[in-house]
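Researcher: Here's my situation. A collaborator sent me these components and asked whether they could plausibly form a single complex. I don't have experimental data yet, so a predicted model of the whole assembly would be a useful starting point for our discussion.
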Amino acid sequence: MFVSRQKFLFLLPGLLGLLAIILFPLLFTIRVSFSSWDVVVPGLDWIGGENYARVFADRRFWEAMGRLALMATGTVLIQYVLGFALALLVWRDVRCKRFFRVLFLVPMMTTPVIMSVIWRTIFHESLGPLNDFLGLLGFDPVPWLSIGGMAVASVMIVEVWQWTPFMFLLLLAGLLSLPEEPFQAAAVDGAGPVRTFFMVTFPLMAPISIGALIIRLIEASKIMETVYVLTSGGPGTATETASYYIYIRGLRDFQIGYAASMSVTYLVMMIVVLTIIAKLLTRVFILKDGA
Amino acid sequence: MAALYRFLKYAAILAWSAFVIAPFLWALTTSFKTSSGVVSGATYIPWLQYKPSLEGWGVLFRRAGKGIDIVDPYLSSLTVTVSASAISLVLGTLAAYGLSRFSFRMGPVKNADITFFFISQRIMPPIVLAIPFFLMLQALGLLDTRLGLILVYVALLLPIAVWVMVDFFNNIPVELDETAMLDGCGPIETFWRVILPNCKPGLVVAGLFCIIFGWNDFFFAFILTFTKTQLLPVAVVALNSSVTPWWSLSASALISVAPLVVLAFIVEKYLSQGNLAGAIK
Amino acid sequence: MSLIVENLGKTVEGEVHLADIDLAFEKGGFYVLLGPTLSGKTSLLRLLAGLDRPSAGRILLDGRDTIGTPVWKRRVSMVYQQFINYPNLTIYDNIAFPLRRMGLSPSDVDAKVRGAAEMLGISELLERKPGGISGGQQQRTALARALVKGSDLLLLDEPLINLDYKLREQLRDEFKNIFSDNLDSIVVYSTTEPIEALMLGGEVVVLNEGRQLQTGPTHAVFRRPATEAVARVFNDPPMNMIDGTVADDHLLLGGGLRLPKLAHLAGLAPGAYRFGIRASDLGLARGGANDVAFDITVELAEISGSETFIHARHADVSWVIQEEGVHTYPLGELIPAYLDPRNLYAFASDGRLAAAPAAGV
């Protein structure tokens, strides 16, 4: 619109407030990353890029990053597909759809940590219901939390349970706001449900899909609490994500300087990767739509 | 063909519903157990497979000695979450309106960059901020206090409010603001009298997300509080590490998640009215 | 009250939206901004309202530059093409809004609101909300709110473009009545349709690509377009334009059409010209003694509303002829068309008007 002094009145309280709280931690972390602060030698000295060199050589860190990338994209994609399917299922012409909509929303309202505590009891190999149920069906007990691959799967199951509703909510709201006309046109053209979905529904939902995917990716990359409760990063380092590893080095081993350098590296990488993904997604969706 | 389709539809819905309910059902039955119901393997049906008891639940409300106090953490969580959400919503909505309507230029930094700055705050994993926040609160004497937590939560929730509201405002035509101004309203009056009353869906969504993310935070509460102030998630998880019986665990877990489940009803109501549609894009 | 636009220009990120606009508006006057899309009409209206700032030039209200006055302190109303009303207020409150801002007493507000609603025919809707009424009714509400303030300047930006055909015609008639009583405000109305300009009258400002082509009383500009460009903008369907030459005693148009140098054409100096004639001034039946016949091949008969536009060819020149009523024509056959040279416009090679039909032909 136009220029007026008053516009700053709107932006500044929030911006300055955020900066005030965030600026110190940010700057501090960057400064600390250049020091060797740890339990043995506390305090801000300067060791230049030593920590960063160590980060680049740290295999465990990069493995954790890789694991994170896998788990985050894996769960987000599953959540997207499931969330979309669920949204479509309770979108229209279903009995008791309001009840199911409420039910489907519930998991995301719960406290992830607390639910993880419950899941831990569920996944328990000898006393938990999951293996008991599988036993009834004739399967051997599954080592949900004690074997690497299974542990990853268990964490992912919990994440999917917890966060699919978030996708579901965004996508359902999007579906409910779609105009009638394109669907009527498709019906007139004799398109069946599958074709209607790919030709009409999916393209129209493109902008919302992109937003939802990006937001979920941002949140999913911070997976920590589930891992902390369910597996403590184990067995071994099988479910150790980047944030968990940083937690170990920083708050358990108290190598604060090193943890800070990992954090900064992580942050920069995340921003770059997420921006690229955002641009890519936009191109993919828009291309599909305009083609 | 159509009948098969319908059957599959309902089957899918019921399957997922079962998946959603399962953990709650399990927690519910477990909360009524005692050691006999747990030690020999998984049990499900009270009276048939184990003897139900209220021991798990009783533990919640006993204060001193055995048991955990659930009332205090509840109140703390409530205070902190509501305050932080309210502040974030107010500041965030104002900022979002500014970013949507006006163009800012602070050096090379423009609107889109500022919005990106807000949203990118969510990328920070809690770890990155944990120690500096700790030191900051320590210096301010706000460790282990509700106020300290509120401050930290505002930093976490503000980006959410901005993200939701900027999108929402962008969907309201600028011509409406202009008409208000032509009718004699200054920018602030325009915001207050014309735009805000049309914002309810957006505010509901933003407020909802703030409350959800605030109430359910574990990490920062864990790091920044100890004994004086304790939030709900921390209280419950503390039980996890000690040798706490499953039944008290389950009972406290159920109690903790109940309030927000109520929110699910409110959200669904707004969703079905089509009001949320404009807010989430 | 006088409103003067001096040397106004607006450039956005390198693109020129408006340039060199000079206008003078008078109290009680009705002005039409006519031009195709992207000709600068909306830009000009927004600058007049104070919603945007000019890149060059100034706008003077009673001699003072308006640039310092913020929008909310001006006495301006605007009606947009999208139906803009306050969604959360009833129609009554919508119309009352500006009056309450001005601090009028509730009884004054009530009287004015009911008066405006009466004039726009929406009195039964006062308790409803904008979401529950039709587009036409929403636009009437917007108009009522714009009028009720008694502003010095009333701006309308293609207000009828989003309404259906019948509604447009109906509202156009009502506009004539509403604005004919107006003695105090300056009304500026923008449109892309020449017929709206002609129906509403007043003075017209013809715009194209951000520039001001011609300004003057609407019918005068219509009859005597100063340049080819004006003739192009001000006619729908566009004027038939044919290259031709003028000799001492006759005109020769493209396709070998030879015409006598009658009436206003008599004074034309020999040379190359472009001749223009309106589709409605051509016909398929002999109209009068001066009609000249020429054979055309019909390529397409386009039915639009209650008229038919015939697209045809004579030799290698394309013509568009407008006929009343709905007809079908034999495609591909040769049929006679008639042209009265007294309806011919002549434009010199630089685009400027050389000769125009006399009034009353």
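Model: Some features of this prediction you could bring to your collaborator: The two ends of chain A are 34 Å apart (CA to CA). Residues 59-290 of chain A form a domain with the MetI-like fold fold (CATH 1.10.3720.10).
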